[in-house]
Fold this sequence. Notes:
binds guanosine-5'-triphosphate; three-stranded antiparallel sheet; 30 helices; Rossmann fold; nucleus; seven-stranded mixed sheet; GTP-binding; disordered C terminus; 20 strands; alpha+beta; elongated; disordered N terminus; ATP-binding
Amino acid sequence: MAAESGSKGQPHKSHRSRQAGPSAKKKKNVSSNFDNENLTVEQRRQRNPKAFAFNSSVKAKRLQARTVEKEQRRLHVPTIDRTYGEPAPYIVLVHGPSKVGKSLLIKSLVKHYTKHNLPEVQGPITIVSGKQRRLQFVECPNEINGMIDASKFADLALLLIDGSYGFEMETLEFLNILDTHGRPNLMGVLTHLDKFKDVKKLKKKKQQLKHRFWTETYQGAKLFYLSGLIHGKYLKREVHNLARFISVMKFHASSWRSAHPYLVADRFEDVTPPEKVQKNRKCDRNVTLYGYLRGCNLKKGAKVHIAGVGDYSLAGVTSLADPCPLPSAAKKKGLRDKEKLFYAPMSGVGELVYDKDAVYININDHFVQFTKTDEENEELNRKGKEPDVGEVLVRSLQNTKYSVDEKLDKSFIDLFGRKPNVFSEAQDGAKDEQKSIEWDNEMQTVDNQESGKDSSSGETDADDAEGIESFDQYERVNGFDNMNSTMQPSSSKGGLTEHVEYYGGRMRRKAVFGGDADPGDSDEDANIDDEDESDANDVYGDSENLSSEDNQTSGSDVSDDDDDEGHHGEHMGNASKWKEFLTERTMSRQHRNLMQVVYGAPATLSTSINRGQEHDDSEEEEFFKPKQEGKKNVGEGTEAEDVNVEDCSKFVRSPKSWKERDVVESIRDRFVTGDWSKASLRNQISEFNPEDGNAVFGDFEDLETGEKYGNGEMEDFDKKQIPSENDAVIEERRLKKLALRAKFDSQYPFTFSNNFIIS
Ligand SMILES: Nc1nc2c(ncn2[C@@H]2O[C@H](COP(=O)(O)OP(=O)(O)OP(=O)(O)O)[C@@H](O)[C@H]2O)c(=O)[nH]1
């Protein structure tokens, strides 16, 4: 239309350049830049736009590429890729305190990636998460040794935190352990957030936990929120987001790991010949371990360390077909459903399993037609006939849940060892006041038995009367200067406090950050609306008082201004102090053996028996000890020798310090030969050589000649004190030995070197 009108003679409106606004400004600039008319010659030369341009485009390209390359090299120091073939799956370790939702998260992630429902989480679970990537999910065991092992191989650690409760010691301990091996990628996951009813409080809590998590890890560490459950599973959207993050994450194995071969066994098989086991149940076993090899190559005969078992040499290494291969590279985009493979032999998925010496076909129970029917119906059907013998046998087999071996393995006597479990079983579901008091008493007893150092906070009955479900039993305070909360409680301000309590159906070890500048923790636990959990704040209040007062007060409403200032004034994080409790706790958790149960705790026994005669006895023992034995402690010599022994699993090393006199005493008293009475003097003397009975005080009897070398004085003493051992007996024993030797020589006609003495 415009063109037409133009053609009819109407003149176009002339262009009016902009006078204001950004376009006008821009034009002005451009024109002034290139408006050389008003410039002097000198100025024009200086403003030559081509002065720094490239003459050659090829040269320009090369220079650009070089700059980019230099930049990249600065960012990533090149690492040597020692792997061949497809890269092994990355290990995603799911860590968290008990009942935080580890298994559920693994199940949800597996469901997301593979569309399969995992019945149970046992052992590593390998899945194909993308065209180039496989992941192996491992649930971290909830005990210190398991954590140490797991920290060695994790590529990514998902730290699960119960959002409704806050940080627990397990998480902090694990972070600490990770430091030793080099921290892998870390991600935090908050669960149990559905316990918050108030959105504001939830938001505040999330903020607090995020900042605490950043303090413990690094600024900006990723923290995921799993806001609740639908049909017993985490929300799909949230799992999807988490899965995406894992799928695109960049993994960098530490240089140590990539230079050393290691393997996470996802299956193992005992291939010892059955007849060998039948002959001797404790014979050396041959075990085949299956898993993806990581790091670099592994050779036959190499020495390997099996975590928690010991050092062994490899009898052989075999390369097997990949049980969970990556999809073929030809496909276009994404994974087809049938390529969404997963492999979890210990969790009972994967139907066909090839072993070194067998093939197993796993048939799900619901595919199997069991002949099991009701007993009553059976009676009717049979109509008085005797059941067939074969039928009875088959039925008894069907009814058997565990083999005899398994039953034996599972059975153990554990009277006092695992207090939290005993408690959780006993208290499961029971929240009435009466039971809380019972528990209080029980725990106090156990506590007193266990350690004199840990002071029991002893919740008063008044607390119970108020309906507070705080089961505070004892509190461990880790301060800057001392470890004993009772002695110098004020030192706990700057450190981290472990607070053991019964909460939400289980025992928890809450991490209370005493000197944290972040005030969040102080009132954070009051956030939960759920009435059951309303004690959390009280617990914190208690801990404040307990640590700053005398461990005896239990009220929560006392607040000291000066104290508060002190809290904020001090910086936090004396991690090395709270670490020291790891050993103590691990030792306290060890199962007590039957001997200890029968004879009592070592310290108690020795002190109770020896109280009256301690001084005298110690003097006597010093006197009657063989020369070398007196200086050497019992366990030391063996341990020093065993350090380099190949199969170190055969030597049990106790964490006790055998240098301590009390410990040695306690062992001695376990035997009848202990100093139960002074009359058994002889037994004391022969303690280190119970077979011989006369070879004490460093005496030496030459069996060849029959001559005796020893301390004359001691012999005299021996004869005076113990007239029962006369010369005739000694002579008889010597002759017996000689006869034995002669017999042996006649049977084995080898010549021994002179210094080979058979005794
Ligand atoms: N309300 C709620 N319940 C949850 C949440 N996450 C897990 N649970 C429940 O907590 C219980 C324990 O979950 P698990 O996955 O067995 O926890 P776990 O950490 O594997 O436990 P252990 O293996 O015993 O250490 C289950 O009953 C879950 O349904 C959550 O976010 N909200």
